[in-house]
Design brief:
9 strands, alpha/beta, Rossmann fold, 14 helices, 54% helix, N-(1-d-carboxylethyl)-l-norvaline Dehydrogenase, domain 2, 2 domains
């Protein structure tokens, strides 16, 4: 284990090709994250269920392996960005999963958004191989991922956190070490619970302003000048007004995170009535076939209610 902690910072600052990195899950978030590592000069091996999604990275120099286990076996550190807890467990612990290729001296960094119990389960399986484990879910969507502006919420083995810090700095603008496994997952769920609730409230405001004869685009400008200004509003507002929802963060994932956050709140007997109400709107939007649209499409669930 000391080999990992001792060698990676040197590799990161010196001979980049000496650090062998793996990346599992080449989707909306995983693709730009892996791409940034490749463009920074690192040796990156990739895997995805649909191989074609890896092809642009292969053209940039990435190596493709046919299973997560093969990626982990050929890498010093393997990153995983999966869509939900079930996928995260399967890719880490399932047949030919990453754990099958891990051993002492290697590291596994799960940057997926999952609940704390799932993260602890994965951690136990990874550490049983002798490898180090870090959960590091990210705050940020497609554009921040492309720009290397993500926020990493890390917890787990501190030595692994210190070792992979240079890689996190390439993919993100900031990082937090939060202690024991589960804390990173919890922080991410709280952040996304707040974000989902904010988007639902913003949607109500846009529709109400239009309903009473105001220009919703002016509302966006007014909000951007005040204390409740948030980049999300000015970024999403104009397209929402046009009923266009280019996917940066799929609505189905936002609803999944709301569900997991509500479960977290239930586990500590914390009342979350606003988030619970917002979650119902995302569920309605999913039932309207909007799962793969951006989470800002939740506004459509309110249009349906107004028309009833």
């Amino acid at each position: 284990m000391s080999d990992l902690a001792g060698s990676l910072p040197e590799a990161a600052s010196g001979n980049k090709l000496a650090a062998k990195l793996g990346f599992l899950g080449i989707g909306i978030m995983g693709f730009p994250m892996a791409q940034n590592l490749i463009k920074a000069g690192y040796n990156v091996t990739v895997w995805n269920r649909t191989k074609s999604k890896c092809d642009p990275l292969i053209s940039l120099g990435a190596i493709y392996k046919s299973t997560p286990g093969e990626v982990a076996a050929s890498s010093d550190v393997t990153f995983a960005m999966l869509s939900d807890p079930e996928s995260a467990v399967e890719v880490a612990c399932g047949k030919n999963g990453a754990a099958s290729g891990l051993s002492s001296g290697k590291g596994y960094v799960d940057v997926s958004t999952v609940d704390g119990e799932t993260s602890k389960l994965i951690s136990q399986r990874i550490k049983a191989t002798g490898a180090l484990f870090l959960e590091a879910p990210v705050s940020g969507s497609k554009k921040p991922a492309e720009d290397g502006q993500l926020i990493f919420l890390a917890a787990g083995d501190k030595s692994l956190y210190d070792s992979v810090a240079p890689f996190l700095d390439i993919m993100g603008k900031s990082k937090f070490y939060l202690g024991d496994v589960g804390n990173g997952a919890a922080m991410k769920l709280v952040v996304n619970m707040v974000m989902g609730s904010m988007m639902a409230s913003f949607s109500e405001g846009l529709l109400l302003s239009e309903k009473v004869g105001l220009d919703p685009s002016v509302l966006v400008k007014v909000i951007s000048q005040g204390a409740i200004s948030a980049p999300m509003y000015s970024m999403k507002g104009p397209s929402m007004i046009q009923s266009v929802y280019p996917t940066a963060f799929p609505l189905k994932h936002q609803q999944k995170d709301m569900r997991l956050a509500l479960g977290l709140a239930e586990s500590v007997c914390q009342s979350t009535p606003i988030a619970a109400a917002a979650n119902e709107l995302y569920k309605v939007a999913k039932s309207q076939g909007l799962s793969d649209q951006d989470f800002s499409a939740v506004i459509e669930s309110l249009k349906g209610k107004l028309q009833q």
